Amino acid sequence: MALTILFGSFVLLLLIGTPIAFCLGIASFLTVAYLGIPPLIVFQQMNAGISVFALMAIPFFIYAGDLMVRGDIAARLVALAASLVGHFRGGLGQVNIAASTLFGGISGSAVADASAIGGLMIPQMRQRGYDVDYAVNITVTSSIIALMIPPSHNMIIYSISGGGQISIADLFTAGILPGFLLAMGLAAAAWYVANKRGYPITAFEGWGNIGRRALGAIPGIILIGIIFGGVRSGVFTATESSCIAIVYALLITLFVYKSMGWTDFVAATLGAVRTTAMVLLIIGAAAAFGWLLAYLRVPAQMIDFMQSMTDSPLVIFLLLNVLLLFLGTFMDMSPLIIITTPIFLPVVKAFGMDPVHFGVILVLNLGIGLCTPPVGAVLFVGCAVARIRVAEAIKTIWPFYFAAFVVLMLVTYVPAISLWLPSVFK
Amino acid sequence: MTAFTAWQVWGRFVVNDSPSWTEPASVLMMGWFILLGSAVGVREGYHLGFDILVVVLPETPRRVLVTISDIAVTGFGGAMAWYGYQLAAGTWNNVSPALKIPVGISYTPLIVGGVLIVLFSLERILRRLAGLPEPHLEADPADSVA
Amino acid sequence: QEVVLRSADTHPDGYPTVEAVKFMSDVLKKETDGRISIQVFDSHQLGEEKETIEQTKFGVIDLNRVNFAPMNGIVPATIVPCMPYIFTSKENMRSVMDGPIGEDILKAFEPAGYVGLAVYDSGARSFYNSKHPIKTLEDLKGLKFRVIQSDLFVDMVNALGANATPMAYGEVYSGLQTGLIDGAENNWPSYESSKHFEVAKYYSLDQHSQCPEVLMMSKVSWDKLSPEDQTAVRDAAKQSVTKMRELWDAQEEKSRKIVEAAGVEINEVDPAPFVKAMDPIYEKYADTPELKDLVKRIRDTQK
Ligand code: NA
Ligand code: NA
C-alpha cells in the first residue's frame, strides 16, 4: 500500500505538470503520513541531500561549461576539430562529432554541448548543403559524448547517489574509452548516412592550418588537462578542480581571448544559479524519496524479485538497460540517476557488476534518453537551435540511435571498456 | 548574484587550504542558495517538469490541472516551513563540531524557502484566477541541464 | 500486538555491531514470544550518523548504533571516553564502560532525548606509517598523518609533534603511495581491510583512541513500551554486548594474522610520554567540572 501511494501520487503529480522536485517531495510526504512516521523526516532528508560538499562541483562545472560556451573556448576547439577531420566523407558531420568529443571534455553537460556546438555547426552545415535534420541528429546524439568524457557532473551525482563511496576519479577515467567508442559509432553512422545522401567532402586544410588552430585551442586543451589531471592525481578533489575550472575559464575568456562582455558574464552567472537550484532541489527531494525506498526495503525486494526471475547476470543487465531506456524516454537524466541508483546499484552488485562499470552504463543509457521524445532536453535544444520540429528530427535519427545502442551493449557486456583505463591509472 | 561571487571565493579558499570550517560553511551557504533559488524558480516557472500532457490539453482543463498542481506545491511549501521549524528547534542545542554553531541553523533555509514557495505559488494561482499571463511554463531549454 | 523496532547502522551487513543488534533481536523475540523484534538497516541505508541521530530523537527510527564521537556535541559526557589515551587497554575500557562510570554516561543520554542501552567496542586506534617504527615522541616529529575531520584528532596529532592532515578515507591509500602523507591511524580491522598495510608497513600500537560505539533508543519509542518490555529491551541489549565482543575479538585476531603474514613490522609503545603530551588537549576539551570528574574517575580505575 505504501508503495502504491508513493509511486501513484508521484506519477499523478508528474502528469499534471508539477515540477519533478515537488512530485518527489509531495509523494514522499503523503507516504510518510500514511505510515505514521513523523513527516519531518522528508525535510530532514531533503536538507541532508543538498548538504553534500561534493555537490558543489555540479554547479561549478555547469558554470564553467556555460562560461566556455559564451566565451570563445568552445569555438576554438570546434575550429581545431574542423581542421582535423573535415576532409573525411560527410565532412562537417564528422567535425560535429569530433567537436563534441573535444569540447565535451570540458563542458561536462550534454545540453551545454548541444547548444554550443549546435549553435556553431548547424548553420554552417545548412549553408554547405547538408540537410538540417542530419545536422540536428548528429548534434543531438554526439552530445552524449560530453557525458562520458570527464568531467561529468552526472558521474558525480551517481557517486553521491551511490552513497559517496564510489571513486569519482575512477568514474571519470572509466568514461573516456566508452566516450571515444561512442564517437566512433556515431561517426560510422554519420558516414553511412552521408554516403547514402551523397554529401560533399571538404579539402584537407594542411598541417600548417591544423597547427595554427591547435595553438589557438591550447587554453581549452589545458583546461581539460587541469580538470582530468587534477582529479586523477588526487591533488584536487572534483569540487576543487571544478572551482579552478571556473577561475581559469574566466581568466581566459576575459583576458586572453577578451571574448566576453559584462552582459555575457551576468547571463552565464544567472543561468548557472537557476540550473543549480533546479537540479539540486531535485537531488534533495530525491533523497527523501530514496530514504523511503530504503525504509520500505525496495532495493532488497528488487534483488529478490530479479533473482527469482533469472540467475543469469547477462539477462538481468539487458533487462535493466531496457528498463532504463524506457524510463529515460520519460524523464530527465539527473533525477533518474538519483532515483534509480539506490535501487539498481545493490541489484547489479548482487549480480557481480562493478559500481564504476554500472555508473558508465547508467550515464550512457540515460544519455540516450536525453535524445528521445517525449522528454529529452538535448533533443529540444538541438531542434530549438535549428528551428525544426521534433518530429522532423526523429524521422531520420534511427541510424544514430542504432549506433548508440550498439555501443551501449558493448559497454554493458565488455566491462574492460570501462574498467581497463582506471586500472591502468591506479 | 553577489552571493554567487562570494560563494566562488569560498571555493577558492577551499583550494588554497582546508581549515575544517570552510567545507561546512560553504555547504551551509549552498543550502540557502538552493532553497531561495528554488522559491524564485516556482515564481518564474523554471523548474524541470513533465509538461507534455499539460501543454497539449485545451485551455480550461489545463488551467484546472495546473492550479491543482500549484495548490499541491503550496501545501508542500507550507509543510517545508513548518517541519523545517520543528527540525531547527529540535536540533538547536546540538553543537556542530566544525563551526561551533547550533546544528539547527542548517534547517533555517527550509523555513524561509518554504514560506517563499507558499507566497510565490499563491501568487501564481491568483494571477491565473485574475486572467493575467502566466510566467512561462517551461524554462528556456538552453538553461536546463542534462 | 507486534512491534518491529527499526535500527540504523552505518557498518555493512556482517560487521560485529550489525550482527550484535541482530542477536539482540533474536533474544528479544524469545523473551517476548515474538512480540518485539528488530529490523536492522545496515550500510547507512537510512542516512549518515548525524542524520540518523536526529531521526532517533524525533522518533522516526527506534534504535541507532553510532559512535560516541558524533554524540559529543549533543551529550557532553560522551567526550570523555573519546579523549586520547584515556584508557590503558581494551580490558580497561570494557570494565569502565560496564561499571558505574559507563552507567552514568549512558544515563546522560536521556535529557537529550535518547536512552543509552549498550556500549560496543570500536577497537583501539594506533598509528601506522611508511617511514619507521614509532617508539618515542621523537619518532613522530615531522611525520604527516591523515586524520578524520575532527578538531580533537587534529589537535592530538599536532600536540604529539606530528602534522595532522584531514583527508577523506578513500584518498588515504593513494596519499600513502604518492607520499602526500606518511601515515594514518586506525584499528586492526580497518588497517587490514583498507589495505593500507601494503603501503604503510610500520604499525605502532600506542592505542591513542578507543572512542566506543553506543546502541541507543529514541526516547519517543521508549516511552511507548510497557515497563516490562523496557526491561526486556535493556536485558537483550546487555546480552548483545557479550556477543559483540566475541565477534570483535575474532575479527581483530583475523585481521592481525593477515597483516602479520604480509610482513608488517609491529611494535608496542610505552604510552607515558604520549599521555603527558596530552595535557593541553585535556585542558581544552574536558573543560567542565563534570567532565574533569569523569576523567578523574576513569584514571582512578587505572591505579
Ligand atoms: Na564531459
Ligand atoms: Na527522453
From TrEMBL, chain A:
Q: Where is the TRAP C4-dicarboxylate transport system permease DctM subunit domain?
A: 7-417
Molecular-function GO terms, alphabetical: transmembrane transporter activity
* TM region positions: 6-36, 48-67, 134-150, 171-194, 214-231, 243-260, 272-294, 314-338, 358-386, 398-421
Q: What is this protein called?
A: TRAP transporter large permease protein
Q: How does it sit in the membrane?
A: Multi-pass membrane protein
Does the keyword Transport feature in the UniProt annotation?
yes
Q: Which domain of life is it from?
A: Bacteria
What does the UniProt record say this protein does?
Answer: Part of the tripartite ATP-independent periplasmic (TRAP) transport system.
Organism whose genome encodes this protein: Jiella endophytica
Which family is it part of?
Belongs to the TRAP transporter large permease family.
User: In its keyword annotation, does this UniProt entry include Transport?
Assistant: yes
Subcellular location(s) of the protein = Cell inner membrane
Gene Ontology cellular-component annotations = plasma membrane
Which InterPro entries does this chain map to?
Answer: DctM, TRAP_DctM
From TrEMBL, chain B:
Task: Give the record's GO biological process terms.
Answer: C4-dicarboxylate transport
Where is it located? Cell inner membrane
Give the keywords, sorted: Cell inner membrane, Cell membrane, Membrane, Transmembrane, Transmembrane helix, Transport
Q: Does the keyword Transport apply?
A: yes
* Segments passing through the bilayer: 25-43, 64-85, 105-122
Membrane topology term reads: Multi-pass membrane protein
Keyword set includes tRNA-binding: no
Q: Which InterPro entries match?
A: DctQ, TRAP_DctQ
Domain of life, per the record? Bacteria
List each copy of the Tripartite ATP-independent periplasmic transporters DctQ component domain by range.
1-130
Provide GO CC annotations from the record.
plasma membrane
Q: Which GO terms describe its molecular function?
A: transmembrane transporter activity
Where this protein primarily resides, as one coarse class?
membrane
UniProt cross-references to Pfam families, sorted A to Z:
DctQ
State the oligomer form and interacting partners: The complex comprises the extracytoplasmic solute receptor protein and the two transmembrane proteins.
Task of the protein: Part of the tripartite ATP-independent periplasmic (TRAP) transport system.
Q: Which family does it belong to?
A: Belongs to the TRAP transporter small permease family.
Q: What is this protein called?
A: TRAP transporter small permease protein
Q: What is the lineage of its organism?
A: Bacteria, Pseudomonadati, Pseudomonadota, Alphaproteobacteria, Hyphomicrobiales
